[in-house]
Amino acid sequence: MRRYIIFKILGMIGVLLVVLLVTYAIFYIFPGDPARMSCGKPCTPANLATARTVMGLDAPVWQQYLEFLRGIFMGRTYGSGNAAIVCSAPCLGYSFQQNMPVTTLIVQTVPVTFSIAIGAAILWFVAGVTAGLVAALKRGRVADKAVMTVAIIGVSTPSYLLGLLSILIFGFLLNIVPVGQYVPFTQDPIQWAFHLITPWCVLAFISAAVYARLTRSQMLDTLAEDYVRTARAKGLGEFTVITRHALRNALIPVVTLFGMDLGGLLGGAVITERVFSMYGLGALLIGSVGTTDMPVVLGVTLLAASFIVVANFIVDLLYKLLDPRV
Fold it and tell me: Which CATH number fits domain 103-322: 3.90.180.10, 1.10.1660.10, 1.10.3720.10, 2.170.150.40?
């Protein structure tokens, strides 16, 4: 297991380096001059040359890439003298448009995204797996048909439409939930949860539909396996057969999907944040794309890739708990 974990960590580092290299190439090698975008007006040749020097774009591309990597672990300094800008480690770049390190911008917005993602993920996993389990155990009955009907509605409904409808009905017509805004957990935990309950439910309803369908399908296949019939023949209780034998194996693909979904959502719930007027990583990314703030786009992209890689690593470790044969 120790050797497995070491190799997985080395693989994660390799994947992130490739993602960083490709992303860096897209934003800094292909057409588009970050220095000109941050030069201001009027952008005279002298001002443009100064901007390129301060941003480190006057060096060869390979040197810029290595300097960016060094900045992540050791920090870096832009410019020199009294006008020097210090970016402490981990430095993911500096936004000259917003006059702030990218890391600072991420730290300011990531609590919103984490709050939305973690809460919604817990809801959709529990609700989806429970609904799929009930549907599988009640195959062909009313409960099964009801779960599958709701699941089809959830899969077919766009998140932005469901979000807008929830705001209209529960926020304006019934006035039972707040509309927009984000309250930090450290400021008021109750208001934090109260303001997030609507985006949680919207994301959970859509994603739980997928998990319910997948869990139902996997449970039906697992219940037909020989080892399940053997467990029943040995006199084990139905609850033990379902939870310790069938459900554990059925959850393997569900957990795989959960890791991908959660990792992707941690990188920014773009549509949800926009619909509910919450400024998280997704809103930061969209705003930076609109203003061509390349350092921010690069930093958020790298962070999002890191979330996905780490989530998959955790899922791989969970396989051992779900199925000792792995």
Answer: 1.10.3720.10
Give the HSE-up count for residue 292: Cα atoms under 13 Å, Cβ half-sphere. 12
Non-local (6+) Cβ contacts of 40 within 8 A are 47
Number of other residues whose CB lies within 10 A of the CB of residue 151: 22
CA distance 253 to 151: 18
Higher pLDDT, 323 or 288: 288
No. of H helices and E strands in the chain?
14, 4
Q: Which residues pair with 85 in a beta bridge?
A: 78
Upstream peptide bond of 199 is cis (omega within 30 degrees of 0): no
Q: Is the bond leading into 90 cis (omega within 30 degrees of zero)?
A: yes
* CB contact set of 9 (below 8 Å; sequence gap of 6+): 313
Return the closest-CA partner of residue 133 out of 254, 1, 247.
247
- Can you say how many angstroms the Cα of residue 289 is from the centroid of all Cα atoms in its chain? 18
Domain regions of the chain by residue span: 18-91, 103-322
* Predicted confidence band of residue 30 (pLDDT cuts 50, 70, 90): low
Between 253 and 29, the more confident residue is 253
Helix H or strand E segment including 165: helix 159-166
